[in-house]
Request: fold
Amino acid sequence: MSLRPDRKYAKSHEWLKLESDGTATVGITDHAQTSLGDITFVQLPKVGAALKAGESFGVVESVKAASDLYLPVAGTVVAVNTALDGAPETVNQSPYDNGWMLKLKVANPDEAGALLSADDYSKLLG
Reply:
């Protein structure tokens, strides 16, 4: 399992990469995509959607299960990874790079401080 030290992690297995301009990229962790198995479909919100921290922002379906996706911090969606429409398996192949799910304008960057570091997320997984 790989983790990136430049990300923050939610207990619900999403990652967040906060940028200096107040935007953030969100996806699911390597652990999550491994647990789900082969991903066959990703449903994401529309650009412009305003979402609260902890709110479901979409669904990922795999050969094993369907799982809700939860937003680690509040914000407004500014971009979604439309490439996942035709190639949802990208999340399996590259969960931290090409398999990102959405970008958002973060409402309160301080919320990211409540998320887990890579080390703490690793400990959570045991």
Observations:
- The chain has a mean pLDDT of 96.
- The two ends are 12 Å apart (CA to CA).
- The chain is about 20% helix and 35% strand.
- The chain has one domain: 8-107.
